[in-house]
Design goal:
The chain has about 250 residues and is α/β, with parallel strands linked by helices. It has two domains: about 140 residues, 3-Layer(aba) Sandwich (D-Maltodextrin-Binding Protein, domain 2), CATH 3.40.190; about 100 residues, Periplasmic binding protein-like II (D-Maltodextrin-Binding Protein, domain 2). Strands 1, 2, 3, 4, 5, 6, 7, 8 and 9 form a nine-stranded mixed beta sheet that branches. The chain is elongated.
Length: about 250
């Protein structure tokens, strides 16, 4: 497994050094990842650890813009996975990446409602009804920017009861019953299982984000960080992402 993943890393030009841990060595990889990746990346991290004995993957999930701010403030990490290219471009411009990032998945928007859809939300236009308490992501967060794109595509302006800094916070308010609806990613509706129902947004009106991943310049485990990136881009990673509702990058 190690040898095959290392080959993927070498072919992608991510790093040029060897990949294998010496016997008895242990390595920890810290991954900063968008909140919408929590379910899939937690699963991927466990699989990666099994395939690479002695390696531990630790995650910090949050709003992509918040994660960049943490990194700019000196937070230590090895890998960064963002929920859109705009946020990743900020990390690149700040000199945080050791090499050009790669897009590993896509994600589109969907409306999450409590089970049974008690407010009777039928479409994105429904969310403009003042009688419906809707929660969205803040504009500076990738899911918030995507929601604004859908608003423009549909031709409505939402009046949310709150704007959250991560998509998991939006989902949490729907699950707890604090909101009648929330605009989240398709993957969030899938990961929530029976806790929510989903109201699809037609493709013509929807917004789709590209998700990039990159090894950070300050990584103290660059070889293993490159392996993890290659694993996400490889067949095992792509299968887990597809099962989680993510699309394949073009």
């Amino acid at each position: 497994m190690k040898r095959r993943v290392c080959a993927l890393v070498a072919m992608s030009g991510l790093i040029a050094t060897g990949c294998s841990n010496r016997p008895g060595e242990s390595t920890t990889i810290t991954v900063f990842a968008a909140a919408s990746l929590q379910a899939t990346f937690t699963r991927l991290g466990a699989q990666f650890e099994t395939a690479n004995p002695g390696t531990t993957v630790m995650f910090n999930f949050g709003g992509s813009s918040d994660l960049v701010a943490q990194l700019q403030d000196g937070a230590s990490a090895d890998v960064f996975a963002a929920a859109d290219t705009v946020t990743m471009d900020k990390a690149v411009a700040a000199g945080l990446l050791s090499a050009r990032p790669a897009v590993f998945a896509t994600n589109s928007m969907e409306i999450a409602v409590p089970p049974g859809n008690p407010a009777g939300v039928t479409s994105f236009v429904s969310l403009a009804d003042p009688g419906i308490a809707v929660v969205v992501c803040a504009p500076q967060v990738p899911c918030g920017a995507a929601t604004r794109t859908v608003e423009q595509n549909v031709g409505v302006a939402l009046m949310p009861v709150s704007e959250e800094n991560s998509v998991t916070d939006v989902l949490g308010k729907v699950i707890s019953g604090e909101a009648d609806a929330g605009v989240v990613y398709v993957s969030d509706v899938i990961s929530a299982g029976d806790a929510v129902d989903g109201v699809p947004i037609p493709t013509a009106d929807n917004a789709t984000n590209d998700y990039p991943i990159g090894v950070l310049k300050g990584s103290t485990s660059a070889d293993d960080a490159g392996e993890f990136q290659a694993y996400v881009l490889g067949p095992e990673g792509q299968q887990v992402l597809a099962e989680g509702g993510f699309g394949t990058p073009s």
